[in-house]
Amino acid sequence: MNYREFLEQVQSRGCFATADETQSVVANVLRAVAEVLPQGQVDGLTAQLPPELMVYLRGAHQEPDPFFDSQLFLGWVVSSIDATGARDRTEEGLDLYAAYSGEEAIRRCHCVFAVLKSLLEPRQQDALIAYLPDEVSDWFVQA
Q1: C-alpha span between 99 and 125 (Å, rounded)
Q2: Radius of gyration of the chain from its Cα atoms, rounded to whole angstroms
Q3: Would you state the torsion angle of the CA atoms of residues 89, 92, 97, 103, taken in this order, to the nearest 10 degrees?
């Protein structure tokens, strides 16, 4: 699968409006993956993934950050979501944009993970699952 096909599949799964939005989603999810995946694992993915995707994984460290949890992971993904809206004029009212951005970030992870899984061998999937934060590894398995 080439890069364009990868993006098209993610866009189709996620019903993203534009190619730019899709590219942003893919970039943010893979940059978050780079934070938890050691460089040795990233090097093992080179043959399976389109070279354009490897750019997003370049930030991998020799050893992953043990404190990079699912909330930090989502923080990287949420940055691609427009979570701004009109001012809430009620006291202590629910900010619907912020409330649903976490759910949307998880949905975006599922879209990227599903296509990513299709490119990886089972042993590579297992290795990735082992490094992802607990909740994130569940999202990967469910994708």
Answers
A1: 31
A2: 16
A3: -160
The pTM of the full predicted model, rounded to 2 decimals, is 0.84
Kindly report the number of other CB atoms within 10 A of residue 59's CB atom: 15
Cβ atoms 3, 82 nearer than 8 A: no
State the residue for tokens 């799964």: 13
Distance between alpha carbon 108 and the CA centroid of its chain, in Å?
Answer: 7
Q: 3-state class of 38 per DSSP? A: strand
- pLDDT digits 0-9 by tens, 78-123: 765 554 444 555 555 544 444 457 788 899 999 999 999 999 999 9
The two tokens of residue 5 are 């096909």
Could you give the residue ranges of the DSSP H alpha helices within the chain? 3-14, 19-36, 39-45, 51-57, 70-78, 96-119, 122-131, 134-142
End-to-end, the C-alpha distance of the chain in Å comes to 18
Q: How many other CB atoms sit within 10 Å of the CB of residue 141?
A: 12
